[in-house]
């Protein structure tokens, strides 16, 4: 068994920042990651980091833009924390050597992004996330922080009290990809989940193949509620053939969108009369699909994004990476011709419910980055707000897990306080199906000692979780026939893309839930074709697919019960925002395999003002 004060699961932006912060507080900290840190998906973030750095800007304006962008479903304490802490974090990473783009006077460059009232997006060419990862990884190496590279964390070691609010997280279980061994890691102070998004639940996504919702699923099965999962961002500019992201920076620099008729449709058809291409992402994505659906798209699939008019010098200086992506994946020279683009799944606004310090309702368990929902983004994330979330709340989670006093949080967590339960009639009973043998072992919430009694001390809880996971993996490996994970995952991605996309209808959502039930049942017969124990990517993907099934179900459940149109959540039958009924967060708890849906009011009371919901127009 390995042992550290703080364990960080995931080596992307949030994980690296959390580890550095915990180390600075004096903790013995380690990162456990299924990918080498600089291969993490944060490296695909192109656009930039929002922070109020200029005298003409203010954190208050950043907070207002973020709340408006969230369609008033963000929580004010989280949003104001983001806006207040972001400048200091940007200064910190700049001092660590982050190679930001610069103006002629030496100041870091900032550019406009969608939904912002001031050009506050700080960037490093079109590779901001890439440079951010390398900058922070250098700091991890400099500090001698232990990195367990290519260790795939499969479960949490959590105590077995009846209610999640009384449980404690004591560590994790991880699969060593190189050796095939399953081992336990004990955390003396805390575990921080920073595992990224669940993009592989969809078949057209900007996300890397490693983005399989692992952190969400582990926390969910341990008893932590997942919050606002119905709010999935579809980025308006992805390459049709691959889903590769084309940065919002293209539009921030002045790139334009047009349809097959040569019309600049964001203005011509009144989608965003003021901001045009720089309206919020949900607005632009719906506009593009509407153009395609109305027969004004190219090949009934995409629209065009043109940046030729910006000139070669400016494009090479600020967007060179975009030229390579367009050429490599679409065969298009962005200096001479426009690029085809269409919406693709990009970001999950919801996630593991946390407070402002990254703490969940389970003692000692934290989450930060995309897998967490502190609720900064609400119903729609503004471009440029993901990277500041990583560094702001990654740092806070790291400090708090290491014992720092960050004050009493204003955001409540867990199934307590001012909540109301949902009574929607579902097309089937969601959650776990009856499964054979060790396959049913939750491990996280049911870790037991050798004698079968409930484990109470840390070492026994971690050992019990390890034994449970070993039994589950052995069960899959011993089978020599059945269905392979790739078939199951393909069916899942198909129904999610067809039924839980930008435009959603009640019957389609119900069909997706029925499909997910069948997929869950099929997973009972899953087997691992590769018999080896070393570098077994087949085994890893089989475990990841189970995570995707759980997460896809929560996304679809949330989408069905929220009967309104808010932010990224569009419902055919409900074409208006319903503040009188829906200024509240959707929360889904696992309850030993039986999901419960309930709601908690949104917090609109800020530090010195209340954010009053207004019509969100651009």
Key structural traits:
618 residues, alpha/beta, Flavocytochrome C3, Chain A, domain 1, Methane Monooxygenase Hydroxylase, Chain G, domain 1, seven-stranded mixed beta sheet, six-stranded mixed beta sheet, 22 strands, 17% strand
Q: Report the radius of gyration as a whole number of Å.
A: 23 Å
Q: What would you call the shape?
A: globular
Q: Which architecture of the domain at 437-581 would the CATH scheme give at its second level?
A: Up-down Bundle
CATH class of the domain at 437-581: Mainly Alpha
The unreliable regions are 436-452
What is the structural class?
alpha/beta
Head-to-tail CA distance between termini = 55 Å
The number of distinct β-strands equals 22
Largest sheet: 7 strands, mixed
CATH superfamily of the domain at 437-581: Fumarate reductase/succinate dehydrogenase flavoprotein-like, C-terminal domain
Mean pLDDT: 94
What amount of the residues lies in strands?
15-25%
CATH topology of the domain at 437-581: Methane Monooxygenase Hydroxylase, Chain G, domain 1
Helix count equals 15
How much helical structure, as a percent, in the residues? 25-40%
């Amino acid at each position: 068994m390995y042992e550290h004060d703080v364990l960080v699961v995931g080596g992307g932006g949030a994980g690296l920042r959390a580890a550095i912060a915990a180390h600075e507080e004096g903790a013995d900290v380690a990162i456990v990651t299924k990918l080498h840190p600089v291969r993490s998906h944060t490296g695909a973030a192109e656009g930039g980091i929002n922070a109020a750095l200029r005298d003409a800007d203010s954190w208050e304006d950043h907070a207002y833009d973020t709340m408006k962008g969230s369609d008033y479903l963000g929580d004010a304490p989280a949003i104001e924390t983001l806006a207040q802490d972001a400048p200091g974090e940007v200064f910190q990473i700049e001092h660590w050597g982050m190679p930001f783009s610069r103006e002629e006077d030496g100041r870091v460059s900032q550019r406009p992004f969608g939904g912002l009232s001031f050009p506050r997006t700080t960037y490093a060419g079109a590779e901001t996330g890439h440079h951010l990862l390398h900058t922070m990884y250098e700091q991890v190496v400099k500090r001698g922080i232990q990195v367990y590279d290519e260790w795939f964390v499969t479960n949490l070691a959590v105590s077995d009290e009846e209610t999640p609010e009384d449980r404690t997280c004591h560590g994790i279980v991880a699969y060593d990809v190189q050796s095939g061994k399953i081992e336990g890691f004990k955390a003396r102070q805390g575990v921080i989940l920073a595992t990224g998004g669940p993009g592989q639940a969809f078949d057209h996504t900007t996300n890397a193949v490693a983005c399989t919702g692992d952190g969400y699923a582990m926390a969910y099965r341990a008893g932590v509620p997942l919050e606002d999962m119905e709010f999935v961002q579809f980025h308006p500019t992805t390459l049709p053939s691959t889903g590769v992201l084309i940065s919002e920076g293209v539009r921030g620099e002045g790139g334009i969108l047009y349809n097959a008729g040569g019309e600049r449709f964001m203005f011509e058809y009144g989608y965003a009369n003021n901001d045009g291409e720089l309206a919020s992402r949900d607005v632009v994505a719906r506009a593009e699909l509407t153009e395609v659906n109305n027969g004004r798209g190219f090949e009934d699939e995409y629209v065009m994004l043109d940046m030729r008019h910006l000139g070669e010098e400016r494009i090479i200086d600020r967007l060179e990476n975009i030229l390579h992506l367009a050429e490599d994946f679409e065969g298009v020279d962005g200096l001479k011709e426009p690029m085809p683009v269409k919406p693709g799944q990009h970001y999950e606004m919801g996630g593991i419910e946390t407070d402002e310090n990254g703490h969940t309702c389970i003692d000692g368990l934290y989450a930060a980055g995309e897998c967490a929902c502190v609720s900064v983004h609400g119903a729609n994330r503004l471009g440029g707000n993901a990277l500041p979330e990583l560094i702001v709340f990654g740092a806070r989670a790291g400090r708090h897990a290491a014992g720092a006093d960050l004050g009493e949080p204003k955001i409540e967590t867990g199934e307590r306080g001012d909540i109301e339960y949902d009574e929607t009639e579902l097309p089937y009973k969601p959650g776990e199906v009856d499964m054979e043998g060790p396959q049913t072992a939750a491990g996280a919430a049911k870790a037991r000692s050798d004698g079968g009694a409930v484990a109470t001390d840390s070492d026994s809880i971690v050992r019990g979780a390890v034994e449970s996971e070993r039994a589950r993996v052995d069960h899959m490996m011993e089978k020599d026939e059945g269905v392979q994970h790739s078939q199951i995952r393909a069916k899942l991605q198909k129904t999610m893309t067809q039924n839980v996309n930008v435009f959603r209808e009640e019957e389609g959502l119900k069909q997706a839930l029925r499909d997910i039930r069948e997929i869950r049942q099929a997973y009972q017969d899953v087997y691992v074709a590769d018999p080896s124990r070393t570098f077994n990517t087949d085994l890893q993907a089989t475990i990841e697919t189970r995570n995707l099934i759980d997460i896809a179900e929560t996304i679809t459940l949330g989408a069905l019960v929220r009967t309104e149109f808010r932010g990224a959540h569009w419902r055919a039958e409900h074409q208006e925002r319903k503040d009188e009924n829906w200024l509240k967060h959707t929360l889904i708890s696992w309850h030993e395999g039986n999901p419960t849906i309930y709601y908690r009011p949104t917090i609109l009371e800020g530090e010195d003002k209340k954010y009053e919901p207004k019509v969100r127009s651009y």
